[in-house]
Structures are given as C-alpha cells and as structure tokens.
Amino acid sequence: MEFQVGVIKGDGIGPEIVTEAQKVLDAIGKKYSHKFVYEDILMGGCSIDATGVPLTDHAIEQALSKQAVLMGSIGGNTATSPWYKLEPSLRPEAGLLKLRKALNLFANLRPAYLYEELKEACPLRDDIIGDGFDMMIMRELTGGLYFGERKTEEVDGVMTAVDTLSYNENEIRRIAKRGFDIAMKRRKKVTSVDKANVLDSSRLWRKIVEEVAKDYPEVTYEHMLVDNCAMQLVKDPKQFDVILTENMFGDILSDEASMVTGSIGMLSSASLNDTKFGLYEPSGGSAPDIAGKGIANPIATILSAAMMLRYSFDLDKEADAIENAVKSVLKENYRTIDIMPQEEDKRALVTQVGTKEMGDLIAARV
Ligand code: IPM
Ligand code: MG
Known about the structure:
Blueprint: E1 2-10, H1 14-32, E2 35-40, H2 45-51, H3 57-64, E3 68-73, H4 92-102, E4 107-113, H5 126-129, E5 134-140, E6 150-155, E7 158-163, H6 169-184, E8 189-194, H7 200-213, E9 220-225, H8 226-235, E10 242-245, H9 247-261, E11 268-272, E12 278-282, H10 299-311, H11 316-331, E13 334-335, H12 344-347, E14 351-352, H13 355-365
Parallel strand pairs: 1-2, 1-3, 3-12, 5-10, 8-9, 8-10, 13-14
Antiparallel strand pairs: 4-5, 4-11, 6-7, 11-12
Helix pairs in contact: 1-10, 1-13, 6-7, 8-9, 10-11, 11-13
C-alpha cells in the first residue's frame, strides 16, 4: 500500500534523526511492499528563517492533507538563538502549539519504558527498578494553561501576568476515554493525576474521569495528586501503567518519567485526534549543542515511526519488525553516546556508533 507522510525535520538534531527514521521506513517498505511517500513541511526555527513565522498556513494545509506526520524536533538554544528574541507567538514552539491545535491533536501518548539492555542507564537504585517498569503517559494536549487566555498588563501600577487553566467536560471525557481504551490493551490500570485539593479544573477532571471509569469495569483506576505523583515516579515507578493527566502536568511528568528510564533518546510519542491521523515525534528536544555532529540517538524517532505504522496505518506486523530490530541492535551491544554505560569495564563490552550507523544497523534488521 501507499502512505502519504508529512515530514517535519525541524531544527537542531531533527534533520539527522528523521533521515534515519525514513531509512528504516523505506526498509520496511521494501520488505513488506509498501510505499511511503514523503513531503517535507517547514516548522519551527527553520520556518522562521525561511518565512518569518514558525508555521505557515500552507504548512498546516500540507499536514492536513497527509495520513500522518513524522517530526524531528524544533527550537534552539533559548539563551543564544535569535529566534528567542522574537515575541513569544513568533518563536519556534508557537509553531508546534499551533499545529497541535489546528489538527485537534488532543491525545498525547508518551511511553516510558525501561529497556532490559539499558538498565545501567537508569538513575534509580536496583531495588527500586526491580523487574523494570513500563508506563504510558496519556497527556491532554490541546487544553489547559497552554491554550487558555493570557495577558501581561499593568494593574494599579504593578506589572501582572495572567494565564488561564480551563477545561470543559467534553475535553476531559474524550481524553479519559482514550486513556481507558489504552489501559484495556495494557495492564488495565489508570492513574488519573490532578490537583483536586486546590484547583476547580482538577475537581471537574476527577468527576468526569470517575464517570468514564464506570464504562470500564475491568480497569482499576485511582486518583493521585500531581505532587505525590512526581514523588511516586522516582520512589516506585513500577506501580504505574497508564498515567492520565492534563496538559501542563503531563508536560512535566513525562520529562520526569523519561528521565527515570535513563534514556530520553529512546522514547517515542504520538499525538492523535479523533481520526487515524497522528503526529509522531521523539520525546526528546532538538539538542542544539550536538546538532550536526552525527552523534544524536535516532532510536526515539525510529520508534515514533513504528508508532505511526501501528496507530495511523494499522501495520502492526511492520511496527513489531521495527521494535524488534531496535531490540536486536541493543542486544548486539551497539550504543549511541547517550546510552553508553557509565562504568569503564562495561563500556569495553559495547560498540559506540553514530546516528547514521545506528540507522543503518536497524534498517538492516527489519
Ligand atoms: C513537549 C514540549 C512542548 C510542550 C514545548 C516545546 C512547547 O516541551 O512536547 O513536551 O511544552 O508541550
Ligand atoms: Mg515538554
């Protein structure tokens, strides 16, 4: 079959890691007789440089015309890049937020999984790691503080900034359903995270999640306050299966969850709407400090391409092939620099490779 894929290479390490993911997709295409037709879409700093804005209407139209979009990363060094001298609505990140909203990508899936082969990279103690952990952060992506009304103005002679956190019951219900649906395919546990001891939006969140839970009697669910969740993620990450939460909490907790796996360069993500369409991107950022050096880890982007095959194209067998190829190269002890073991004696046992070699190794094994 033929699939239309938009490709946002973006900034920093984005172009390097996306190129490797396309290489792996093409290997899948060859083996399983599919054709992936790519069209580049500009977003982020590169779009600012070319057009003056981080996302043009043309780029949105391009994305809308595709079955899925594969993305690298956007943005630069916030302290030194000229992009961050522009007003906030013209900076690289504004492009991503605009795209999420324009495509109604309300469901953000961020798996955080501890690879057996990469246990040494996990910063937690062995007794906490146990048999490892495997969770899915389900983050609401088009509501809350990110999209509420905001302003900065002088009130009675004092500069005052306001951001608004608002959710309606429909927005909560649709993400909660997605969270429970995903839990049904996993270990059937949902931890809904909120701050219901303080926030009205969280109290509504809790009420609606409780209603949705009634339709999923097989799923065990619990509520957890976000500060406690931040603590539990390092104290006992094994307890989590699906973490269901609003936009801002999900932003913070997903970085924390990826860090406890020790390998943010390994983690993929998907942003989905009500259709089969999805935007797929690695969890990590644009890493401008290592851009162009050929050392970035392409695995998260390659695994994001696998998620694309699974969620947007229903190609489960092909997605499995990519995931198994990744596991193989890890078993064969190939590592990019970010997942090299810390101890000298263990380093001697593995082979360090660059971005392109890692892509080649994985493509050869699909
Ligand atoms: C993420 C990022 C974005 C977010 C930024 C780049 C706007 O941190 O995808 O987690 O906050 O959502
Ligand atoms: Mg983030």
